[in-house]
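Good morning,

Attaching, inline, the backbone tokens for the sequence recovery test we're adding to the shared suite. The designed sequence is right after.
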């Protein structure tokens, strides 16, 4: 299920919610541009309220909860209506909570050992973070050999001018980034610019193959 969701999403905008009404408008703009999902991070005091509002008011978007670090936070985002949770890493406690939770977890990995730990948990989709700092496409190509079943959503350092080269890799099914939701554009309410960047990211003809 999570694998199919990520593949459909193509690009996962990473949003740190501010004012709830602004976050809802931002998500409406992304949905209108053709985006399928968003990640709302738990990096602000309005995050859970914004998550509930987007789930209710922009139902065509699949809402992921980002920066989920603890079992308690996993419970909170489940209650807020998130479709799945995203973490920059993973702990035994978080893995344990995800096994009994109601929504899938996309755990962050940075090493082969962390991929192995995730595979032992029965997962096959991971967030590679921070992707470019870790080695970017070179690391992803290296991981493809020993872990042919693993699929990745690289996040961290991806931009409009490089994300397609990541998506072209066979083991990448989605990319996370914030270039289309840059803070200055959101602060200015430049919905036209945001919509144009989002539409370009979803442009037909550059989507990854089914895998």
């Amino acid at each position: 299920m999570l694998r199919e969701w990520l593949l459909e999403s193509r690009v996962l905008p990473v949003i740190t919610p501010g004012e709830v009404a602004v976050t809802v408008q931002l998500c409406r703009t992304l949905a209108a541009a053709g985006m399928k999902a968003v990640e709302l991070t738990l990096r602000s005091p309005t995050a859970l309220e914004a998550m509930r509002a987007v789930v209710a008011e922009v139902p065509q978007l699949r809402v992921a909860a980002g920066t989920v670090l603890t079992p308690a936070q996993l419970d909170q985002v489940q209650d807020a209506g998130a479709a799945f949770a995203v973490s920059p890493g993973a702990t035994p406690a978080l893995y344990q909570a995800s096994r009994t939770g109601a929504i899938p977890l996309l755990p962050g990995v940075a090493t082969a050992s962390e991929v192995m730990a995730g595979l032992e948990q029965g997962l096959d989709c991971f967030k590679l973070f921070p992707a470019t700092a870790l080695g970017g496409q070179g690391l992803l190509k290296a991981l493809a050999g020993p872990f042919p079943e693993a699929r990745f959503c690289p996040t961290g350092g991806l931009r409009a001018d490089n994300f397609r080269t990541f998506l072209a890799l066979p083991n990448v099914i989605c990319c996370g980034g914030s270039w289309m939701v840059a803070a200055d554009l959101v602060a200015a309410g430049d919905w036209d610019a945001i919509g144009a960047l989002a539409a370009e990211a979803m442009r037909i003809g550059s989507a990854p193959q089914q895998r």
